[in-house]
Amino acid sequence: MPHAELRTKRLVLRPWRDEDMPAFAALNADPRVMEFFPKTYDAAESAEGMARIRGHFATHGFGLWALQPLEGGPIVGMAGLAVPHFQAHFTPCVEVGWRLASAHWGKGYATEAARAALAFGFERLNLNEIVSFTTVHNLRSRRVMERLGMLHTPDDDFMHPGIPDGHPLRAHVLYRLPRGAFGASQTV
Ligand SMILES: CC(C)(COP(=O)(O)OP(=O)(O)OC[C@H]1O[C@@H](n2cnc3c(N)ncnc32)[C@H](O)[C@@H]1OP(=O)(O)O)[C@@H](O)C(=O)NCCC(=O)NCCS
Q1: What is the DSSP letter of 81?
Q2: How far apart are the first and last CA of the chain?
Q3: What is the pTM of this model?
Q4: SS3 for 93?
Q5: Which protein residue's CA is at the shortest distance from atom 16 of ligand 1?
Q6: CA-to-CA distance for 71 and 66, rounded, in angstroms?
């Protein structure tokens, strides 16, 4: 069965195509985009990343979609739902996430795409809760979570098990969105 494609006012969230690889690799090689990740990815690491994303779609039927502006042109980034592979006090869970090319920050694309992904998670997957997490200092990403109405409780803060002890990016915040809190006002 083909994987779902979601549509918003300005974007299509669609499955990945081989021709997206250069834009995906450029996204992951940009130090500005990867400021809050342990490192940028080289071309081989981006190819592995793309294979992991496609594998996630094959396993779960959803994942981080490629973001294609309706007006055309190359993809502007990715956003969607993912099942984290590490263990923490809030797993198993489904997270909502995003990564945009810096030329496309400040347009509301991440929030718009995330709302469509949340609607898919609550309405089509029937999830009871969707979470999001990021390193404490990633304020741009935290602002997206807050715009989406996600709630942060300091008791949920955690040390990311995939990042070494003592690393400055290890301390993470968790935001939660319960099904009932995703209201009609969120509809895109
Ligand atoms: C996190 C990230 C996606 C946020 O991007 P963003 O452009 O700030 O977020 P949005 O797409 O929701 O856009 C909101 C901004 O667009 C502005 N905006 C402009 N036009 C808009 C519109 N039509 N609708 C909504 N917002 C609009 C908003 O005012 C807001 O700006 P502000 O934060 O300065 O107030 C982006 O910084 C990024 O990709 N970072 C690197 C990857 C990363 O860290 N990912 C998260 C890991 S957990």
Answers
A1: E
A2: 25
A3: 0.96
A4: coil
A5: 106
A6: 15
Supply 75's token pair.
């993809």
pLDDT tens, position by position, 74-128: 999 999 999 999 999 999 999 999 999 999 999 999 999 999 999 999 999 999 9
The whole-angstrom separation of Cα 28 and Cα 16 is: 15
Cα–ligand 1 centroid distance for 147 (angstroms): 10
Q: Which of 8, 32, 99 to probe ligand 1 with, by most ligand atoms within 8 A of CB?
A: 99
- From residue 43, alpha-carbon distances to 25, 29, 50 in Å are 6, 8, 11
- Alpha-carbon distance of 104 to 116, in angstroms, equals 18
**Which segments within the chain are labelled E, that is strand?**
6-7, 11-14, 64-69, 77-82, 95-100, 129-135, 151-152, 158-159, 171-178
